[in-house]
Write a structure and sequence with these properties.
By secondary structure, the protein is α+β, with helices and mostly antiparallel strands. Among the domains are: 79 residues, GIY-YIG endonuclease; 109 residues, Nucleotidyltransferase, domain 5, CATH 3.30.420; 161 residues, UvrC, RNAse H endonuclease domain (Nucleotidyltransferase, domain 5). The chain is built from 15 helices and 19 strands. Strands 12, 13, 14, 15, 16, 17, 18 and 19 form an eight-stranded mixed β-sheet that branches. It has a five-stranded mixed β-sheet with strand order 9-8-7-10-11, with helices on both faces. It has a three-stranded antiparallel β-sheet with strand order 2-1-3. Strand 17 and strand 18 form a beta hairpin. Helix 4 packs antiparallel against helix 8, helix 7 runs antiparallel to helix 8 and helix 12 packs across helix 15. The longest helix has 26 residues. It is globular and about 105 Å long. About 4% of the residues have low confidence.
Length: 526
Amino acid sequence: MVIDISKIAIPPHSGIYIMKDDTGKIIYIGKAKNLRNRVRSYFLKNQNYKTQKLVEKISEIEFVLTDNESEAFLLEANMIKRYRPIYNIELKDQQRYTYLRITNEVFPRLMVARRTRTGEFLGGGRVYGPFTSGSSKMLSIGLLRKAFKVRICKRLPKEACLEYHLGNCEAPCQFKEAQEKYGKHISELESILKGKQRLEDFRQKLENQMKDASLRQHYEMAKEIHDTIQRLQNLQTKQKMESTKNHDEEYFGIAIHDQAAHLMSFRQTNGVIRDRNRFSFDIVGDNSFSSFLSQYYSTNPIPKFVVASELPEKKDILEEVFSRSAGFKVNIIVPLSGKRREMIRLIMKNITLYQTKGSEPALVELQEKLSLKSIPKIIECFDISNHGTDYAVGSMSRFVDGRPDKSGYRKFKIKTIQGRNDYAMINEVIKRRYLRLQTKKSETPDLILIDGGKGQLSAAINALKNIGSKIPCVSLAKENEEVYIPKIKESLVISKNNQALKILQHARDEAHRFGLAYNRSLRKFN
């Protein structure tokens, strides 16, 4: 049942709106200059299919007011990162900021701070960050541990381990002197992580201590300090390389096809293309190129120029938000000529090539996840619609290149099965459909999808075997959206935000809708 929007008091101010389902779970977060106008627009009749599916699930809407639209952009991006609603744009590299954790043990350890889906940190202790470029930070954690003599053992051993003999730890597990010095090491490490002390300053302090130890002829201590300085020098070199990267320009091409956006980006640094990425997202609610950029640059370095195939909505506000975050002027432009225009043409050519090869990203991923021999360009999905024991029909939706091909939809009146026996009905419908295609030598699908679990899948597989067909066949169970594959005991669980799963869900929903309509029409005229 769709929520009655007329009974909700919606403020006519800028801010964000938070849509929840009947369990209280956040399913979509959006922003607006005028909340009242934007939220009411969702409930008009001219919405696309995916937005309609969103609206059907809304049970509650909350509002958070902001002073202006740019604040709404920032708040929306932060809220989406924290709650990751299923209908919002979600980037695969959303966790590119790394957080480090110092545990609250007697002799603390340094670890990467893991986070839950809601953004909460796992484990006790003190968390520091965020630090950019997570992969590089993972490499430098080892150097930090060694430089500050931080133990790595999960449980304190009874005697000194290999790390002590390698000079990476002073063995607080065995030596009292090491226990007394350990707290100082952790304090110095925290000073670095908090930014209160620069690595260069700390290194200079160690050099002074090394010289002092050498003058006092404490050569062993001087050597230990020298080794620590060398490790810090390695760490500092990595950080210097990281911080001096000049992210000059980033190029984006965007193409919209059947309620989905497909993007490709090239990043150019010092005149050289350094990276290339592909993205796609559903056109639902406020999901747009503008929203994508807002999310993308909340977790990626911001360049001086964002060069695009088209201007995003709210360009001026985006430039203001990005400039404030980056600390320098950021421009979003659409080039009309020159090398930048050639770069955009190249990106759009790549997007077109990617699609015309049948390489819709979700279909390619579906092929990989289901271990299919070819990309499932044609998918036929079957559903059984029962009403009592007298009315039972089969229905089939057909998807081509990930989109509905309604001219290919088929309906079946059950002929040989009495009573309610979904398995037998699936068996009958599959035999009828593919015997007919074999007889006429017509084109067969790349994948058959069955609405149901293991039982329905087994019935379909048996039918295909009986007629000598080897078309790949899987099933999708509604309860937990699990995919069942023949000869594999455990079901395949695909993330609910995954575009590959959404194609299967859309095909299943269409088959169900088509079958239900046919069932109703039969009952109406009997």
